[in-house]
Structures are given as structure tokens and as C-alpha cells.
Amino acid sequence: MILTEEEIEQENKRIAKQYKELLRISYRTLTEDDKTLIRQAFETAVDAHKEQRRKSGEAYIFHPIAVAKIVASEIGLDATSIAAALLHDVVEDTEYTLNDIEQMFGETVARIVDGLTKISHLKPERDVSLQAENFRKMLLTLNDDVRVIIIKIADRLHNMQTMDSMRADKQVKIASETLYIYAPLAHRIGLYNIKTELEDLSLKYTEPEVYQDILTRMKESKEDQDLYIKDFTKIITDSLDKEKLQYEIKGRPKSVFSIRKKILKQNITFDEVYDKFAIRIIYKSTPEDEKFLAWKIYSIVTDHFRPNPTRLRDWISSPKSTGYEALHITVMGPKGRWVEVQIRSERMNEIAEKGYAAHYKYKNEDEEGDENLDQWLNKLQEALENNEVNAVDFVEQFKLNLYSKEIFVFTPKGDLKSLPKGATPLDFAFSIHTEIGLKTRGARVNGKLVPLSHQLKSGDQVDIITSEKAKPTNNWLDFANTARARSKIKSSLKDEKKLIAEDGKAILIRKLKAQKIQFNDKTIAELVKYFKIKTSLDLFYRVGIGTIDNTKLKEFAASRSNAFVSFFKNKIRKASVPQDIDKEEITQNYDQLVFGQEEEKLEYKLANCCNPIPGDPVFGFITVNDGIKVHKKNCPNAIQLQSNYAYRIIQAKWIDSSQQEFTAVIRLNGLDNLGLVSEVTKEISNNLHVDMRKISFESLNSIFKGQITVVVKNKTILKKLMDRLKKINGIDKVTRE
């Protein structure tokens, strides 16, 4: 594209004008040193990108300037961030190196630019797991500097604002990625305005007709909305003025995306969405009077309009973990319409709009940064460092933690803890400390004992009962919802399995020796192939829990000693030795469905509408004539079935049948003597692989009878337990029901 001298001159004038505007609109007060740094970054970026143009044909430099403007005014970051935003594509796209940037601008700017360059190198792939892996890597740059992610969000916002000249398929791809990753991140960092804009722009490209339709209807109803806000304001102005309050009342329309979400969720039309806007009262206040004035305004509003008591949200006493503070009430406004009223001080309003940056503007010098954000970053770092979780699961868990609604619960000492909605006592225990989580034996909520699956509610006081002998079981994964708790439980279960595998290896060496089979890599490979498992650790673990027992090993030895069969098997074997054999993992082999709390095996059919496969999250639906139909939890029919026929839904999950636990009832008879009951219970509780569920004993004329219900992994463990019980002095007979 060749420009005339006049066009070049015009373009240079526009670039200079944009630069001046960048300095003028900065949220922070810029010192002379700040201005020098930004000027130098600007000149370097102009020089570096002088030959480049965007798809739309304009000079490339307009993009870094636009990103820097978002960083400076909408997000409100400091001069270092503005300089890094101006330079964010320099190392990626031009001759400049990271060393050049470090020499010219110092280590901090270079570190941020390096983080941004790393993210750009993550090539988005169609494969969701690669995309998820890239996202995980991107979050690892948070370790370098949280500003990396914030500038990346600004970069994404400008790209979304200027996507018109791109191919349609690329627009949809970038918009989907924005909804999947960047909007939730902006939400979590407290950048609500940017989150809203990202969501609306994404909808514009993913569902253009829907977006345009809602936008047009919103423009048509704007006049009516403005009149309504005027009527509402008129009613409360006199009362607010009488109290000599300095305030401003604004109407804030709901975003296109949130209206679309409501229409889909509640299955209603645009006209039926009653809260298309909220009224915001922003008041001036000193820090000491903030809370008092918020409740004063609340009282004035509710004097004039009847509040909906179930819709009061007090985020002033307990701010959200994003740092958001406000009082939200829903009142019956003029013309019988429900209206959401948000009451915020100027400080709260800035924090709601600028998030991270405003916290630092308002914090006292002696405070240690923004505690909420730091806590969140620590939790995030913990999740990132846990390599047990595969990338897709990680992203899903991470997104849950980004968007989850919060509840506030109390510790026994009265400290307040914030947890995601749906959290259980297990999540609470792990949020306090990993060791407390791992040793959890039970929980009291508001003084009453509750099961570990109990869902906590805001205001609950939770007391965790711990025991040195307690340890996680597979069931805990059904009760834990937070990423932290789940990753710690999985990690502990994995360690437990590795200990069992070590025992299993010793048992296997012994048993092979008895069969006169040498224990070496070749034999292990044969065993792995014979038992159709993946890794050597799998093999040792299954020997350890007794799934692969003496009988099965004898069958293996017999098949191996048949020379003729062995000859062909070896030929086949040599051709394909399992690749995963040395992997340090114990695989979950989903092959059986169980139903209900008791995990029963029942007859079922797989639903044709969603075709679930082993491992998918599923539920059972009891049909009228066709038995149990199994559907995926995200099946298109799931919502309809769960809402209309909740009473016919049955819990279902896939299990690895070789690791399945089963319930057995043991009957004991014998002569009653002192301490017999205690010896029996001690024997059972000392056995690591046995879980005692129910126990009853009776003694009649010196004859002792007992019945114990236990949960074990397999018959071998049960047999061992029964043999040990028989050896107790006084026990005459041990039978299984």
C-alpha cells in the first residue's frame, strides 16, 4: 500500500494526536519521569512498526497506542504498564530483542513484554485440549507479573473492537475464545466494564442477528427507560437532598449479552425481561462515613419503594473476592416494575470499574497490596502447579472458580471465609489448610453434625473434626467442588495408590518366584498385555488390592508355559510393546455404570440423543416403558428432564470395576469376654483397606453374637480380614452373609 506524502503527513498528525490523548486520559497522575518513559516507549514502538500495517490498511502503531489507552484510562494502570502496552508487539514482530528492551526500559518493562510475547507464541489450535494447554501456559505468566494478563485483556479488547475487516470464520473463532477465556478473566480481576464489552462484542460475531435484534430493541426502549429513571429520581431526590448528601443518579442499561443470557435461561421474550437496566446511586463520602451513608440511602429508597427482601445483596460488609463493594436492592418502582438499585460510594464505583488499579489508588501506604487479589493469585498459582489435572479439566475448574457466585461462612473463631456457591465442609477444610482437609473426619455446621456432602449456606459456622487416621477416599471427589480441594484429594489418592503399588510389586515378585517365572521388564510387559492394562504401576496396584490374585497369575503362567501359543504370542508381542508401560500413573479404566447413593448395578440403556461414552458425567432417567436411560449431564434434553421430571432422575457414574468397592456383612459368634468388642473393632480399623459402616453386638448368657457391615475393594481383602478375626481369642465362628 503506497501512500502519498500528504496522506503520510495526515497519518503522522493522527498518531501525534493519539499520543497526546493517551497522556491526557491517564487515570494515574503522571510525573515528568513517567512522561519521559512513555515518550521513549512511544518513539521506539513507532520506529519498530513503521513498515507494518493492519488488515484494515491503517498503520500498525495505532493498535499498540489503542491498547495503551485502554490500559491508561479504562483499566488505570501505571506508566510502566502503559510503556509495556506500547511495546507489547515489538519483540514479537520486529527487529528489536528483549535485551534491547531491557537496556532501554529496565527489567520490569522487559519482564512484562516477555510475558506478553510468550502468550503470543501460543498458537491457538482447533484441538480443544491444545487450546486449554495454551491457556494454562498463559496463566503461568501471572507468576511473572499480573500486569501481563491485564495488558493481554486490553490487547484482546482492542482486537475485538477492530475485527470487522477479518474473515468471518476467524471472527467466530476469536470471539468464542474471548467468551471462553478472556471475559471470565476480566470478571475475576474486577474489570466489569471490560468484561461486559468483551461479552457483547463476542455475541456480535457469534450470533450477529440476535445481537443486532436486541441492540435495536434496546435503542427503541431507551427513551422510555430515560423517562422511567427521571420519574424514579424525582421521587427520592427531595429526601436525599434533605440529608445534604452529594450524589449522582445514573441509569445503567444491562448488556446485550446478559439480556440474551436471561432470555435463554428463563425461556422468555425480550419484552418479558423486566430488569433491562439498573439505577445506580453514587455518593461522595469520607472513608469513615461510607458504610453509614450507604445504609442511610438504602433507608431513604426503601421509605419510598417496597423492597424485595430476598434480593438484598450486602457486598459492603462482605466484599466479593474480586474486591467489589456495593449495596444492591430490588424495589417495586413506579408503574409496578421491579428495579435494581445499586448504592456505591465514588471509591466503590471506581473499584467496580477499574478493579485492580483502583485498589492501589485507595489503599493506605502501610497496607500490603490488595489482599483479595493476592489471595486469588496464590490460589491460582497452586492450581497451576498441580500437574495431576489434565488441561481441559483444569480450564473447566478454573472457569468455575472465575464465575462462581460466593457464599460467606464463619470459622469456629468467627473469622469470615469466602467460598464458591455449592461448597461443602470438605471445600472449607481444604481452604483453611491442606493438612486439615486431608485429616477431615467429619464436620459440624451451626453445632450439628453433617455429612461431608452437605452444601454450605452463607452465614453457616463450620467446625471441622479431624483425626490422624482419616484419609481421603474416592467418594470425596463427589463431595468436593473447589479446584483446590479436588486437586489435593486427587494427589493424596495417587500417593495412596503408589504405596499400595509398592506392596503389590513385592507380592508379585514373590508370587512369580513361586511359579518359577523371572521378574524382569519382559515379564512385566507380558503381564501388562495379558491383563489388558496400561502401565506397570497399574499392574502392581491391582496385585496390591488383590484384583489380580493367585488364580489369575496361575492362569497367566499356564498360558505362558504353552510353548506353541507362546511362540505366536511372542511374535505378536514383539511387534507391539505397550508404549505407556513405564508411565508413573494408575489409570482409571471406566467400564461400569453404577446408580444411586448405594452405587448399585442396574439394567440400563444409553440414550440416543447424546450417546454417552465411559467416563462422561452422566445421570439416569427412569422412563415409563423403557427402564433406565442414561444421558450425559450436558445432553440437550438434560435441563428439560431435570426440571420437569426431577423425581425420575437417578444419580449415575462410571467406575473402574477392578477398583470398585463392595459391601459385605460379616457375622461373628463366640464366647463373650471382657474387651472382645474392642479387639474386633481395633482389628478392623487397623486394616487400611476396610471401611466399617455398621456394627451391632449382643451378649446373651455368655454367648456373643455380632454383625459388622464393611466396605472392601475385593474378596481377597475380605478373606484376609475374616482370617484375622478368627484368630481373636473367644471368636468361634466368622461367616459372611
TrEMBL record:
GO MF terms, alphabetically ordered: kinase activity
Sequence ranges assigned to domain TGS in this UniProt record: 405-466
Record keyword Transferase present: yes
Pfam families, alphabetized: ACT_4, HD_4, RelA_AH_RIS, RelA_SpoT, TGS
GO cellular component: plasma membrane
InterPro entries for the chain: ACT_dom, Beta-grasp_dom_sf, HD/PDEase_dom, NT_sf, RelA/Spo_fam, RelA/SpoT_AH_RIS, RelA_SpoT, TGS
Domain of life: Bacteria
Keywords in alphabetical order: Kinase, Transferase
One of the protein's GO biological processes: guanosine tetraphosphate metabolic process
Cited function: In eubacteria ppGpp (guanosine 3'-diphosphate 5'-diphosphate) is a mediator of the stringent response that coordinates a variety of cellular activities in response to changes in nutritional abundance.
Family designation: Belongs to the relA/spoT family.
PANTHER family: GTP PYROPHOSPHOKINASE (PTHR21262:SF31), GUANOSINE-3',5'-BIS DIPHOSPHATE 3'-PYROPHOSPHOHYDROLASE (PTHR21262)
Protein name: GTP pyrophosphokinase
Protein species of origin: Mesonia phycicola
Upper taxonomic lineage: Bacteria, Pseudomonadati, Bacteroidota, Flavobacteriia, Flavobacteriales
